Each structure stands twice: as C-alpha cells, then as structure tokens.
C-alpha cells in the first residue's frame, strides 16, 4: 500500500494542515504572537506544496532533485 502525494498546490496544503502537529488547534494558540506564527506556518506549507508540485516536472523543475518531505516540514515548523 502506498501513500500517493496529492495533486495540486491546494490539495497538498490541505494535506499538510491535516498532519501532526498542524492539525492541533492549541499548537497555533500557544505562541505569544499567534497571527505572526500562523503566517509563518502558511509560508512553510506553501513552500512545501510548491516543491512537491515542481518535482513532478523532473529535470525541468529542478536541477538537483531534493524531496522536501513531510518530516522536513515538521522539523522546519
């Protein structure tokens, strides 16, 4: 059984927000500046989604292929 990545940036971002720790509401509210924190997390998930989409283009998308996986996103957050 495999877990295929979602198709499209929107579907990838929704999938990112449904993973741990992003699916926990208290994760966002526990910070001193929740609005700035939400914007930062949005930027990281958008970056992750764009990298996942671009890798489908192969060598045209990136010169050096690097998979920015969900574990990389979790570590970045």
Write a structural description:
By secondary structure, the chain is mostly helical. The protein has one domain (9-76). The protein is built from 4 helices and no strands. Helix 1 (9-17) crosses helix 3 (34-54). The model has no long low-confidence stretch (mean pLDDT 80).
Can you give me a brief rundown of this structure?
The protein is built from 4 helices and no strands. It has helices spanning 9-17, 25-29, 34-54, 70-76.
- Share in helix: 40-55%
- Cα-based radius of gyration, to the nearest Å: 14 Å
Helical stretch tally: 4
**Coarse shape:** elongated
Largest pleated sheet:
none
Low-confidence stretches: none
Write the layout of secondary structure elements.
Elements: H1 9-17, H2 25-29, H3 34-54, H4 70-76
Helix pairs in contact: 1-3
List keywords for this structure.
77 residues, mainly alpha, 4 helices, 55% helix, 0% strand, elongated
């Amino acid at each position: 059984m495999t877990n295929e990545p979602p198709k499209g940036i929107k579907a990838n971002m929704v999938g990112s927000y449904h993973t741990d720790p992003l699916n926990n509401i208290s994760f966002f509210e526990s910070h001193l500046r929740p609005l700035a924190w939400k914007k930062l997390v949005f930027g990281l998930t958008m970056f992750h989604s764009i990298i996942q989409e671009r890798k489908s283009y192969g060598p045209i998308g990136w010169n050096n292929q690097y998979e920015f996986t969900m574990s990389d996103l979790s570590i970045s957050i």
